[in-house]
TrEMBL record:
A GO CC term attached to the entry: cytosol
Site label Deprotonates C-terminal active site Cys, positions: 29
Lineage: Bacteria, Pseudomonadati, Rhodothermota, Rhodothermia, Rhodothermales
InterPro entries membership: Thioredoxin, Thioredoxin-like_sf, Thioredoxin_CS, Thioredoxin_domain
Keywords: Disulfide bond, Electron transport, Redox-active center, Transport
Site features described as Contributes to redox potential value, chain residue numbers: 36-37
NCBIfam families: thioredoxin (TIGR01068)
Descriptive protein name: Thioredoxin
Domain Thioredoxin: from-to ranges: 1-111
GO molecular function: protein-disulfide reductase activity
Organism: Rubricoccus marinus
Organism superkingdom: Bacteria
Stored Pfam families: Thioredoxin
Length: 114
């Protein structure tokens, strides 16, 4: 299953990403173990998910194990990060970005709870 605060999705994408994104934003990290930038970005995303105190949920999808999901969502390079809100991709980026830029991106795209 992975570490707390993250989910390794297999056949549960509909339930764990699309359906859950109607409750709170779901950030999906498409990655692979051989990808150097993924190994840099992944721990940062995990730490920020924990810091968010449940404001958004992190789901990690190994694109080697789930090429069908990567194709469905137009992943052409990894890491590819997609933010799902209400069942659709609301924002996305590709590549490892520095933590300050990642924090700004999250602040800009993750809705603040009312």
């Amino acid at each position: 299953m992975g570490r707390p605060g993250q989910l390794d999705v297999s056949d549960r994408f509909q339930t764990d990403v699309l359906d859950k994104s109607h409750e709170k934003p779901v950030l999906v990290d498409f990655w692979a173990p051989w990808c150097g930038p993924c190994r840099v970005l992944g721990p940062t995303l995990e730490r920020l998910a924990k810091e968010s105190q449940g404001r958004w949920r992190l789901v990690k999808v190994n694109s080697d194990h789930h090429p069908d999901l990567a194709r469905r969502y137009g992943v052409r390079g990894i890491p590819a990060v997609k933010l799902f809100v209400d069942g659709t991709v609301e924002a996305e980026f590709t590549g490892a970005i520095p933590e300050p830029a990642l924090r700004r991106w999250l602040d800009e795209h993750v809705p603040t709870p009312s």
